[in-house]
Amino acid sequence: MDVFRLVSASACFLGIVITVFGSLYPSEKFGKQMKIIFSLIFILSVLKPVLGGKFDFSALKSSVSGSTGNFEEISENTYGYFIRSVESNISAALETELGKLDIYPEKIETSINISENGSISISEIRLVLDNERQIADAENCIGNAVNGSVKIVSEIKEKGDELAGIS
Question: Would you place residue 128 in the very low, low, confident or very high pLDDT band (cuts 50, 70, 90)?
Fold first, then answer.
């Protein structure tokens, strides 16, 4: 960290000095040569601490490897959030479609798969409904809505379920 401070301080100081000397030389005749000389002095003064062996690259390596670990964790969390969000949106859309038929499921859970090419497919839909008639109508409606072969797992709500929440 001290080397970084030294490099930063050198760069700032030399930037100011070069600007001052650049405005002081009398004519543009030697302007390009002076810019080259000042640029070389600037580069050498910034590189001197690094090339002098004072800079410890292991600290930089450990900070970079630590940040990549955080990136992987963030990436996994983001991917999980994306999956849950898509599943939730599909469940809400199916609930809306079933509501048009006056079918109001107790619970809808959707499971999806994302293939390597990025396509999303619904692998399973779980429903909890009141009776067999609603199950048949819901499976027909969902089959039409998803246009494909999706595993639909339907359950009938048990009579004790509505009493379970009352204490």
Answer: confident
Q: How far apart are CA 3 and CA 9, in angstroms?
A: 10
d(CA 108, CA 89): 11
- Residue 146 tokens read as 């998803």
Instruction: Give counts: helices (H), strands (E), the chain.
Output: 5, 3
**CA nearest neighbour of 18 among 35, 30, 33:** 35
CA 20 from centre of chain: 46
* Secondary structure (DSSP) of 22-39: HHHSS-GGGHHHHHHHHH
Amino acid of residue 66: G
Query: CA 10 from chain center: how many Å?
Result: 38
Give the DSSP letter of residue 85: H
Sign of CA dihedral 96, 97, 99, 104: negative
pLDDT tens figures, 142-162: 887 776 677 778 788 776 544
Residue found by looking up tokens 């994302």 in the block: 114
Q: Which of 164, 163, 127 is nearest to 145 (CA)?
A: 127
92-113 pLDDT per residue, tens: 888 888 888 888 888 888 888 8
| pTM reported for the whole predicted model | 0.51
Query: To which residue do tokens 């969390």 refer?
Result: 77
